[in-house]
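Sanity check

After download, print the first record. It should look like this:
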Amino acid sequence: MSLFRRLETLGEQDAPTSMQGLYLPGLRYSLRMVDEDTLEVTRMDNGIIRAIMWGMFWLTAYFVVQSWWEQNLLWDNVRIWLDSQEYFREQYDRWVLRDGGTQIVGEFPDWYVGMMEMHGNRWIGGLIFLSLPAFFFYCAFVWPRYRPLRFNRKHGIAYTWSWGRFFLTKIGYNTRDLDMALRGTSIDPFENMRNPQLMGFGPLVIRLRHHRRQSWKERWALGVFPPSHEGQNSQIAYAISDFLTSHNRPDWCDALEQQPPYSWFDRFLMGAFNLSLLPAWWPRRTERLIQAFLDRDAAERDALRRKANGMDG
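Expected structure tokens:
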């Protein structure tokens, strides 16, 4: 418990229960108003995975720089991969100087062939050694960040992108179609039962349907990491339900937009976790898919209405 309390945002306090209202100073890290009718909720996985990728990048980059500075065996593998002939030429010259001539080591072409037969496969280790920081840098900086989930109260829909697939769920008079569930800090349900106090620090898990294959559902964990306050998951669930089911735009939406600006440390962390060279959304394609879904839904409802009124015969 103390570990996750230390991970909380500095200066934040425990959030009140949903019956007392939303804790907007903490929720401002998870919620964002896109427009008058659209609420955006951050995915928790984005912060966790990018933090790990940045950490692994700096760790592997440190080992690469250290091996280059010390010119150790790891860097020798890299040199064999980049230019094996130059590397073995240096080794050959060193052997010639030590033995006083070429009578013992032989001519360089023959010696080079022998060295390649014995050590030529070391280039694989050098390639892997340099590829690791490049791979982690790609995952942390170039890979698209996880798309947040958006909820539109005008059309009553929730949607997002995942690996080129578009997920959209139509929400009726309640939010049961969203299949929301609170999850603790562990994915093990028994661990959460043994430590119910940890439920307040876990993410809100939501399932959405594919925009065409409605039987195909996928789940996402919502919230920020580290959690900005205790009870973050239940607060997000209450905010989503209130936003979608209210006839008028809730007052807390205006209060959310009027929250004080982030501190420099918060801006740094959020920028690092959300920085990506590739865009997070494709607005035009998203609008086309949403409109196509709404047209299909309207056509299906009209067909059901005509069939119920006996107008198809």
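If your output differs, re-run the checksum step. Summary of this record's structure: The first strand starts at residue 31 and ends at 35.
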